[in-house]
Amino acid sequence: MELCQALTIExxxxxxxxxxxxxxxxxxxxxxxxxxxxxxxxxxxxxxAGHADxxxxxxxxxxxxxxxxxxxxxxxxxGKLLDQLLGEVGLARSDVFINNVLNCRPPGNRDPLPxxxxxxQDYLLRRIELIRPRVxxxxxxxxxxxxxxxxxxxxxxxxxxxxRVIGNRALRLYPLFHPAAALYTRSLLDTLRADFxxxxxxxxxxxxxxxxxxxPAVPEPEIVREAEPAPELPGSPPDRQLGLF
Length: 245
Known about the structure:
Blueprint: H1 3-6, H2 15-30, H3 36-41, E1 49-50, E2 56-60, H4 65-70, H5 77-88, E3 97-100, H6 114-131, E4 135-139, H7 141-148, H8 154-157, E5 162-166, E6 169-176, H9 179-182, H10 186-196, H11 199-204, H12 238-242
């Protein structure tokens, strides 16, 4: 039985408890072999980084080469642009949580496969459940299509916030162009900057009404067991991966 299946249905009441559960899910993800090719070719799992109680979450596509080396999402050119855009609206990386649809780099930076997205999505749902963001920005097509459960592309949806129930959490989903795409097309950069400018007003809105019956992202097990500790990987302890600011 995997750890995601071992976490209970009971809602965690304190920030400290949720952070500990988040670290436990991370420990399971580090040893994940659901996608044999990704498990074989990755350097390390890129689970996510930032504020463990963030009101704002970003969901990208998958780690690249630098992310795979460092174990931290968005550390390349796209990450620098993301940091710049955050600064322009009065935010910093330490204020938000950043993660991807996939926890592992696809070989050659190819697109994620449907089976890989299916295998990894419950990790994303658990992060949303435990971090409890008010706004989730989906960056690009893969994240937007997954979180909306709809094939409509980012070109039609960018900059249009909508209330969605994702997992067991009602929140505002805000599709944006991926910073990597905006690096190569000036018009996309201008559009992305304009869409980013709306983020503070979205964060200021009241939290959407939550579902009456809150269920976990994965089934409740009959038996709850503690996870075996994962071996430490150089440069990627939970405090660095998760921020814990």
